[in-house]
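Ticket #4471: complex job returned nothing on first submit. Input attached below:
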Amino acid sequence: MKRPRLHLREAPLPGGQPLAFAIGLTIALFVGTLLLLGAGHDPVRIYSRMFEASLGSPDAWAVTLNRAVPLGLAGLAVAVAGSMGLWNIGAEGQIMAGAIAASWVARIGGDWPGLVLIVAMLLAALGGGGLLAVGPAIARARLGVNEIITTLMLNEVAIRLAQWLIHGPWKDPGAHNFPLAPMLPDQARLPTLFSRAHCGLLIAVAVIVISSLAVRYTAWGYELRIAGSSEATARYSGISLSRKILTVLVISGGIAGLAGGVELTGTADRLTESISNGFGFAGIIVAALALMRPSGVAVVALLFGAVQIGGQSIQTLGVSSSVSTILQAFVLFGAIGAGVFSRYRILLDGEARAVPEEVNQ
Amino acid sequence: MTQTPSPTDESQLAVQLSEVWKTFPGVVANAGVELNVRPRTIHALLGENGAGKSTLMNILAGVYRPDRGELKLHGRAHQFRNPADALSAGIGMVHQEFRLIPSFSVAENVVLGSAPSVIKTRQIEARVAAMADKFGLRVDPAQPLWQLSMGERQKVEILKVLWRDAQVLILDEPTTVLTPDEVHELGEILRRMADDGRCIIFISHKLHEVSGICDEATVLRLGKTVASSLDMATTDSTELARLMVGASPTTPDRPAAATPGVALLELKELSARGDRGIDAFSDVSFQINSGEIVGIAGVAGNGQRELADVIAGLRPSTRGSLIMNDADMTTASPRQRFLSGLCYIPEDRLGVGLAPRLSITDNAILRVYRQQRRGPFIVAEKALSYCKGIIERFGVRSGDVDGPIAALSGGNLQRLLVGRELDSQPSVVVAAQPTRGLDVQGVKAIQDLLLERRNAGAAVLMISEDLDELLTLTDRLLVMEGGNIRGEFDPRTASRQEVGLAMLADTTAISQP
Amino acid sequence: MNEASLIGLLVATVSFGALLYLAALGELLAEKAGVLNLGVEGMMAIGAVTAFIAGVELENPWAALVVAMISGAALASVHGFFTVALGAEQVVSGLSLTILGIGLAAYLGKDYVGLPPGAKLEPVQWGGLSDLPWVGPIFFNQAPLVYLALVMGVAVSLVLSNTRLGLALRAAGESASSTDSAGHSVLGLRLSAVAAGGALAGASGAYLTLSLTPQWAEGLTAGRGWIAVALVIFGAWRPGRVAWGALLFGGTLALKTRLQTFGVDFSPIILSMLPYLLTLAILLAISVRSRKRPSPSPTALGLAYRREER
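Support reply: We reran it on our side without changes. The output follows.
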């Protein structure tokens, strides 16, 4: 009997990943068309509205870019860990931790000059996110505890920590007993570049560029990639694995924390429970679609941001926001599936491609 | 030399394989092999590594399909499409790599795959215990597998095959994981199974064990049967060794000997444990001088791999000391050893020596990237020109140097790896299986590189399973067996048979009952 | 604190415990076979919404439950297809599944938000037992899904430890190649475990809309899927221990809304961190202990299997 089997290619298909993303988008558009027709909408109108609202004007670009910033930073956080084969599932919580740390600085530095305050807040965000990753990093480096679960658990802890602060110690007395954190001081807002696009874009681009360069061109990044490709090779060449795991996970957490800081100073008025807004989870997907390459994260984050903003915009046309969520999911699954096929070829021959053990030990 | 005792009657043979051919890309593993096994016997299948034993047995067990050839069980022809077919025809194989699940109990491991739909633990355990008792396989069915020694795990593998009621048991190198006492015990267990009406095919290259345990032996060499169903009672081990290793081929050109100088690498009673926690080798002492290639001959799994890892610093030693260039390196890190002049060509090229998913350039600079830094950056031009230099000087045929290394062929991978390692002008070279799997040109190229290094005054340790290679290339030849150095030979005068005997026979165990 | 409110707390503990247990059992099944499914939240949402819709349309709670379980299994099979058949990253696929499930649930349920339920699973009466003080309301006046959770727990436990199927399933989660060479289909085992897990997550979601909060709203699952994922680790992949964990975590959920009633001056939010912190502690304890013995975590968890990759 002939059954289709997947056979690993020696090298991924060149251009496979952009193709995978394109296939994912196509599948999503197709499914989206069905969903829209099913709900009685005109798909052409909806899609053109999505495009207009996300990429059709400078204002639209501003909104999309503002969304791409946290997505890109979160994706970068995951990708940096991913270049060493580690999964940081905790970006969601680290974003929250970063936002909490930045809010804390804003509380004590309410009368500092703007530039000082913003820089201090962003540094605190970096530290806050990194701090939340320290536990999983040590557990993984010293005890070998799987980082997927530890970082995942800490997401929930960080989000509840923010809730607790907002409902308790940090509750704004002026908010008529609503559980709201106080507004940030005015000088703590990131200045805008054009339209509503804030300076976070520059920060994100800078961090992505620095990280890409670091991973791609520095000795540090080189060791990271060696360890990510083969731990045995890393040991063979004298690279300390546990120290690498520790630094990489903490840096990854720090970058995610920075996303929280930027989001707080850039688009939010105050610390809220929903400031991480699923960016951490979306970041995992952004990073996976970028094949864990920091340089690819920027492009994927922009496209993903456009899909999200476009999806939100059609709510005004009476289309449920769930359609955009579903579209996102189909982009993901389409791209995951297409990504698999770019790495494997399908064989239809019956017998396994056996290699004699005695020859190929 | 083929002396086939005429098979009395075909239907009396439990297993009859005739004219079996099996080719893999580039390799003829079986070229018209025949094997006749009588019921109620323990039949040894002997041969060096690469003689085609495992391929033949994988054909019998349904793992591979032969290109040509006939398989009869008790006179009836069979064709197996998969291992399940072979199992239902009563053929079970105990592979060298155990296929057991550590967190399961012994009984669960035994019944996996052919358990009743409802498992009553006590009842199953009792049945497994009864079966184990019958053949003297002492294991506790309720015990979790991870608590068992390697020898006990092997019993579980045997029980698995018995549980499926196999009438023909194939044991692939069963003694490599056993202590001498356990080998003796295994012999008794196998005898009981043979007396019970089964037949056992025992793959081995340890002659003394075979002669103590088996009734008959078939010897394979280079994919062909060179002796079929020899009676073990009347065949001595010198004869078997001669059959296995064959006569020496025409003496190839020996490279001119270099003049040995001072000792560069010295091992003093060095010992280390293997992955399974038992001693992989113990009290190994030798020294290698400048301008000398010392070979280590031996059948795979006798401690050579671990020895190379320990010298390279990838595995801790448990006793003894290691001196390199007059400095004690016993506890030095791999990097310290590299900096003081050691290079290591590991057995696993892709995975240890080279990082599979990275580019050719990235792999080429593994030893020198620290010198190519400007600030935190690795200077790309330096890396590229270094990589191109390696490619040019060592004849690596490669496409895009930024392409993944895994796209290179085996020979080119090894040229890159050896080139990279030798480029640092090391004073001590450890090469593990450096020519295995390469084509003729590749082998020659790698051998020439090692010789060149020797002539430049390095001390070279070459571990190989290819005895001919060692005999022609090395200046001194050590034989490793059972984790010990069993002898030193002068390759100019030593005969293949002499060395072969030392590789195969455990002189201390021969004297045991 | 009076007797009635204490009983109320315990009743809610058992209810929430059963809710978490159903989902956690499903996750346990998938993980035992070697597949990490981080899409529990999405599968619960799908179960919740389809149960509610089916309840409104069919007006039969049991039919609604079946619909929810089938929907959960179908959604889980998406994850199964991508991770088991295609070998995609389980983490990425599972998170995508959460997004897909939540999105689909919102899309399907948008016309049902705020509607009264068409069918409810009413508490089961056990005759005189239900009238017993304390024990009666806590154990013998619960929704049918509480008893279903109990039955499923026993069933999963028995199947895993006492059947050929369970042995093969566990083997697939420990070593795919050993399972394959023993003649079982790793693909089939894993796909069915993932689908069965989805069915249980769907049932858990149905419990929400058919009896606990008989209404549909977006975000109804409120992160309980993540607690289910944590529970599996907390219970060291054993159905029995997971049950106790479910009661403990269910207790924290029940207590969260009642702290003020009891006059306890403790933040309910801090309390709700407890399950995650406890799980982290257990995880650390397991890893310290596994230096001596194997970890209870399935060895092949998260690893794709393809035969030629020997």
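Chain C has twelve helices and no strands. Closing as resolved unless it happens again.
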